[in-house]
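Continuing the series of single-chain predictions for the mutant panel. This is the parent chain; the variants come on the following pages.
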Amino acid sequence: MGKATASKPAPQQTLGPNPALKRLERLVGIWDIKGRTIDSDVDNISGRMTCEWILGGFFLKQSGQITFKGLTMQSLEIISYDAASQTFSATVYSDMSGAVLPYYWDIQGNTVTHWTETHKYTGTFSGDGRTLTGGWRPLDGTGDVAYDAVMTRVDQNPFLALILY
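Parent structure:
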């Protein structure tokens, strides 16, 4: 009989991020935000948002600060992809409260949608991808938060965007 040999465990194969995450790539970078609530004739919304891939490209992190009608707030959003439901779900944390808020995303072509159970943002990327123009509206047509805004890319730092594949 031969010598017993210990079997080596098979090398672990790391699966990469789901290819659907590539649809979010256009958000990566630093964006300035300007806009107004629909009841205003002057801009009363301003801010800056940064989007970057984290944890090997499995998640998109969005962090930002926005001044909305004189109130400044900060937020952190982590966006992931659920292959089973084929949706981009997000968890939002803000300095407005300790509540963790669920959001959802989708990007189809030049159209971006971002929504909660009660409100929805719909926007359109410009042809060169440097602006995103859209509005946030209550789904039932009522509510106190409705606005239009333009996001303008101020930087697309190549170190922020991980090459996914």
